[in-house]
Amino acid sequence: MTRAYQYLFGPVPSRRLGRSLGIDLVRYKTCSFDCVYCQLGRTTEKTVHRAEYVPTRAVISELKRKLKEKAAIDYLTFSGSGEPTLHIGIGRIIQSLKEISSIPVAVLTNSSLLWMPEVQEALAHADLVLPTLSSARPESFRKIHRPASELNLKKIIEGLAEFRSNFSGQIWLEVFIVRGLNDNAQEMQALLPALEKISPDKIQLNTSARLPAEEYSLAISEAELLKLARILGPRAEIVADFRKKSPAGKSRAGSAEVLNFLKRRPATARDIAAGLGISLEDAARLLKRLLARKKIASRTWGKSEEFFPVRPD
């Protein structure tokens, strides 16, 4: 029997990154932010303390094992249960990946620690960094991200600009839009000076596609996103997925793989089918089995039923 992966998940389908193999470096919901739109729910361990939250050697070992499977992967992506730059071994893991694989390495980050020289150094060998900056106004920033008390918006913006000046890879900056908080022209205008300093290769507008941490964190429409994108200029594009997902090919994924997927990303049966390369019928069967074992629960948001672990690790 194939051993389940503890620190890896997917590959999952990503509109931004294609088939993305997730690398999870922190305990569930360990983050420097407590974003109102987070699909994993409220942050349970809010911190800026960098530590070895999971064993670095074990992560590298799993990556070597996974890469031997020759799965179709477009990006090796640091993401998952919280903020990956909190892990002090992320730089070592990136360097190990560059030695054993030619697959591009991406880092999804909330940008909160990029002002630290050691974090900038750790991410230096990544191919792509996808930071978030949803507001340049302190009040809106605090309402959206609910950051750790030690963090300062001005310092975060300065850190992003400094990282850009030293980083040779691509930066795709996410602006996450929350209805009633930053969904207006004034907020976008306020972002322009920061965007000029940071000079990202792309500016990507996003909004909630799944049930967020706070139900008042509502999505806006594609038409509304287009209006905001025009304010941010020609590099701005919409990455929020307004399309219906469809199943991918075939794989031998079982209950363990489905549960591992859901620990990092609450999902519908259709999401799971696409992400694990199984039929919609197989996804529904495995979800039914996990529900019967009380390993997962479900919730309805709009017309979709999402599944999530009862007790995430």
**Number of separate structural domains:** 2
Q: Uncertain runs with pLDDT below 50, 5 residues or more?
A: 244-250
CATH class of the largest domain reads Alpha Beta
Shape: globular
Number of helices: 10
**Percent range for β-strand residues:** 15-25%
Quick summary:
With 313 residues, the chain is an alpha/beta fold.
Features:
8-stranded mixed β-sheet; alpha/beta; 10 helices; 2 domains; Arc Repressor Mutant, subunit A; 313 residues
Q: Could you characterize what this model shows?
A:
The protein is of the alpha/beta class. The chain has 2 domains: 236 residues, TIM Barrel (Alpha-Beta Barrel); 69 residues, Arc Repressor Mutant, subunit A (Orthogonal Bundle), CATH 1.10.10.10. Helix content is 34%, strand content 18%. It contains 10 helices and 12 strands. The strands form 3 sheets. The protein has an 8-stranded mixed sheet with strand order 1-2-5-6-7-8-9-10. Strands 3-4 form a two-stranded parallel ribbon. The protein has a two-stranded antiparallel ribbon with strand order 11-12. It is globular and about 50 Å long. The two termini are 22 Å apart. 46% of the residues are buried.
